[in-house]
From TrEMBL:
This is YceI family protein. It comes from Thalassobellus suaedae. Keywords: Signal. Residues 28-191 form the Lipid/polyisoprenoid-binding YceI-like domain. SMART domains: YceI. The keyword Signal applies. SUPFAM superfamilies: YceI-like.
Length: 192
């Protein structure tokens, strides 16, 4: 009986010690929204437009200093152009917020949720996630780089997957030089 109790105590002790060394805690680091920046760039046959959009909230999740997750909420009501001024800026900003594009009255936020993160190089990770715009969710894959308390990434988004078909050559014929390309870019510089 004494041997059995000693064995049970020993097994419990070994299990406790092993668990204390293998229990890896995840650390969630909140994005500093005021110091982070997201730039968008859209393309048309005759040129391009660009601007900014604000991060409402976000975080990156680390395990032993390795990125393992993250999620972001984007405030779509803040979308604006930075390459125009005056009346033209007002018209473009209003049009981007309208139902032709992002419909911010009914869809004031967009979101990105990391589903799988794989190390792809020094300080670089390939992320597969779900991007939701205008209430539609689609998978997206991109690379994010982490340096200290900063991260950078660039995403190419096909707007037609989110029901944004305005002047898309994929849906309308004879647009000629009025066509707007389906893909737009998002470039994010993040601090946490």
């Amino acid at each position: 009986m004494k041997n059995t109790v000693k064995k049970l105590v020993f097994v419990a002790f070994v299990a406790l010690v092993s668990a204390s060394f293998t229990n890896i805690e995840k650390e969630t680091k909140e994005i500093k929204t005021d110091e982070s920046k997201v730039v968008w760039k859209g393309y048309k046959v005759t040129g391009s437009h660009e601007g900014t959009i604000a991060i409402q909230s976000g975080n990156l999740v680390f395990e032993e200093d390795k990125l393992v997750g993250g999620e972001f909420v984007i405030d779509m009501t803040t979308i604006n152009s930075t390459d125009l001024q005056g009346e033209y800026k007002g018209k473009l900003d209003g049009h981007l917020k309208s139902d032709d594009f992002f419909g911010v009255t009914n869809h004031p936020t967009a979101s990105l949720v990391f589903k799988e993160v794989t190390a792809s190089g020094k300080n670089a990770y390939t992320v597969s996630g779900d991007l939701t715009i205008k209430g539609k969710t689609n998978p997206i894959t991109f690379v994010i780089s982490i340096y200290g308390n900063k991260a950078t990434t660039s995403l190419k988004v096909d707007r037609t997957k989110y029901g944004i078909e305005y002047k898309s050559g994929s849906f309308f014929d004879d647009l000629k030089d009025k066509a707007i390309y389906d893909e737009f870019d998002l470039v994010a510089d993040l601090e946490f």
